[in-house]
Amino acid sequence: AQSVTQLDSQVPVFEEAPVELRCNYSSSVSVYLFWYVQYPNQGLQLLLKYLSGSTLVESINGFEAEFNKSQTSFHLRKPSVHISDTAEYFCAVSESSGGSYIPTFGRGTSLIVHP
Amino acid sequence: ETGVTQTPRHLVMGMTNKKSLKCEQHLGHNAMYWYKQSAKKPLELMFVYNFKEQTENNSVPSRFSPECPNSSHLFLHLHTLQPEDSALYLCASSQEATGQNTEAFFGQGTRLTVV
Questions:
Q1: Which residues in chain B touch residue A93, judged by CB atoms under 8 angstroms apart?
Q2: Is B87 or B102 the better-scoring residue by pLDDT?
């Protein structure tokens, strides 16, 4: 069975500093990986996804994540954060084997960007 | 705007009340989901409908009753809830639940408070 671990419940950073939000997963088969962002009083929005191909995936607002199969990780990074990046970030994994492909979510990491 | 609309956005109900949450998507998707989001806990998958058929029921108490009359609409009927059922209830949809296209689109959620 798949599971997702987000090691940090809260990550405070200053504006324009780099940030990394960690995500590790456990699965016995190949996986699809997702990062979602949730702004206050909103639902979750897809930030980026890895399905196959290049292990480095990017979002339109400067985030990137790298799929590392040997370390079973999919960490999210941004070289310079903005105040507006303050939100809750969820890592999710779905297994690409028979049966359902419903994503399993981590507990979330609260990114807090200070001026 | 993700194309998934939930109503109401906020709901306060007594433990003896009966209410329903509504979700509607205009994305042409065939899978719809209910998730429960409680503070500092992972998203809990409650129900999955794929092509109007319920395919997942994650040991959800019978006081929660889903209904999917067509691929565009999903309801969650509530009765005799408990205070611990207070949470953000998120609806999501995806192209399907059994293939690669499991990228989920979320509604803004219904904030439910049981008093």
A1: none
A2: B87
